[in-house]
Amino acid sequence: MNIVVCIKQTPDTAATVAVKDGHVTWGDAALVINPWDEYAVEEALRLKEKHNGKVIALCMGAESGKESLKTCLAMGCDEAYLISDPALKGSDVSATATALAAAIKKAAADLVICGKQAIDGDTGITVSAIAAKLNWNLLTYLSKIDAIDFAAKTIQVERSLEEGKQICDSKLPAVLSVVKDINEPRYPSFMGIRKAAKAVIPTWSVADLGVKADEVGAAGSAVTWPEIYPLPARESNVEIIGGESPEEIAAKLAEKLIGEKVI
Ligand SMILES: Cc1cc2nc3c(=O)[nH]c(=O)nc-3n(C[C@H](O)[C@H](O)[C@H](O)COP(=O)(O)OP(=O)(O)OC[C@H]3O[C@@H](n4cnc5c(N)ncnc54)[C@H](O)[C@@H]3O)c2cc1C
Question: Does the pTM of the predicted model rise above 0.85?
Fold first, then answer.
């Protein structure tokens, strides 16, 4: 039984994201596992501990993604692969999902777990796109896996919606996305960190995935980004109202508010 976890590498939540020369930049801020994806890793590890099998982490991105994959290994994942290739440059969600779905097939996955969204791209639709490419069932925003039977290929989950909870039964294989109520991600163990530090993470190119170069990257994307710009600074007029006493200041303020028809 192989559980694949899709993790994206994102800037740390404390990073200041800016737009410079038409490109998004976060300077030299630390890169981390997308925080939502830590919950996906944790849930996969818990399933492995209960049902045996293997947890395989996949990340599509730059070479630096290997550091985040090492964190997955340190947490307890069995294998980790980076999907990286110049042909992937300019990939939209659909092209990203094409590459990830091919990697998921290569990993012979029985189940895929993702985070609910990436804190940088923020679309939250890669999960659905992966399920569509694989033609697998899609179960999103899970706050609990109630039951899973890999032999019978069935799963029962609790979906967390704004209006309440929803219990869903489905057949496997499936693609899941999880929310943070599902668990508390573990810290990597000291032994895990030492083992992961020595690990060599293989890189899968598009050729390794059996994907044609024009199915991914800018060539395989329907979405282009003709312009990226920062929001204009909000204009505001500030007037400091002075006076000898709080009563005087309050009276002047009330007069102004009445004058502006605010009160
Ligand atoms: C101008 C522009 C240029 C871009 N160029 C590139 C590029 O050259 N190369 C490139 O790789 N991307 C590129 N992207 C980003 C890419 O389009 C998105 O990151 C991708 O479509 C995922 O969307 P998202 O970040 O909204 O993820 P969401 O849909 O919010 O993510 C949901 C979940 O899907 C999984 N997931 C998402 N992305 C990945 C990933 N990369 N690896 C593993 N799991 C993942 C995670 O579990 C995540 O929690 C570009 C985006 C823009 C705006």
Answer: yes
